[in-house]
Amino acid sequence: EPEVTQTPSHQVTQMGQEVILRCVPISNHLYFYWYRQILGQKVEFLVSFYNNEISEKSEIFDDQFSVERPDGSNFTLKIRSTKLEDSAMYFCASSVGTANYGYTFGSGTRLTVV
Amino acid sequence: DAKTTQPPSMDCAEGRAANLPCNHSTISGNEYVYWYRQIHSQGPQYIIHGLKNNETNEMASLIITEDRKSSTLILPHATLRDTAVYYCIVRGQAGTALIFGKGTTLSVSS
């Protein structure tokens, strides 16, 4: 069964450093998403991406965040200057379409900011 | 914010059917009902979705009331591996993202 692959599984970074989280969506999917989950809290939507541009974003997704699809397979989330409160699980997801399609989530990257 | 209401927790005996309710009284005509689950801190897993008809797949059945104001996810024979947080989500218009609420923590015990 096709999977969404995320790397690394765990990343530790110093506060103020830039970090890039990587995702390989399912190959025939057209819509891409990033979510995060702070420990013990609910899964929060960050951003959706379609046709090489952001289609929707939440209030969490401020100027410190950016997304990119640098080639035909990768989808990345960059945090420019990490803060302690950015520590969370970050999940990438992809889908074939929108309203009548489910998302496939990756297994996540645990980001720890120290 | 999520447009659904779910009980915070439920228990189920292994081998029995687990029936997870969800209220979505403000659902509009073009909105789908989606169910996902999250086992421990893994990525959410898609289970099933529907618009107005009942749906069944290899994982579960989804029963949507005729007025579409509520639905029930049925796991016909729950196993210990079904212990997870189950999320009922009403998906907006095409292109809008899935928004997760707090879900129902289902505990399956032997």
Describe the model.
The complex is a heterodimer of chains A (114) and B (110). With 114 residues, chain A is mainly β. Chain A has strands at 5-7, 10-13, 19-24, 31-37, 44-50, 53-57, 65-68, 75-79, 88-95, 104-105, 109-113. Chain A has no helices and eleven strands. In chain A, strands 2, 4, 5, 6, 9, 10 and 11 form a seven-stranded mixed sheet that branches. Chain A has a four-stranded antiparallel sheet with strand order 1-3-8-7, with no helix packed on it. The radius of gyration of chain A is 13 Å and the shape is globular. In chain A, 35% of the residues are buried. By secondary structure, chain B is an all-beta fold. Chain B contains no helices and nine strands. In chain B, the strands form two sheets. Chain B has a five-stranded mixed sheet with strand order 1-9-8-3-4, with no helix packed on it. Chain B is globular and about 40 Å long. Chain A binds chain B through residues 4, 33, 35, 37, 42-45, 48, 50, 55-56, 58, 89, 91, 93, 98-100, 102-108, and chain B through 30, 32, 34, 36, 38, 41-46, 49, 51, 87, 91, 93-103.
Q: Kindly report the greatest chain-chain contact and the residue count on each side.
A: A-B, 26 and 26 residues
Mean pLDDT of chain B: 93
Please compute the radius of gyration of chain B using only Cα atoms. Answer: 13 Å
- Helical proportion of chain B? under 10%
How would you describe the shape of chain A? globular
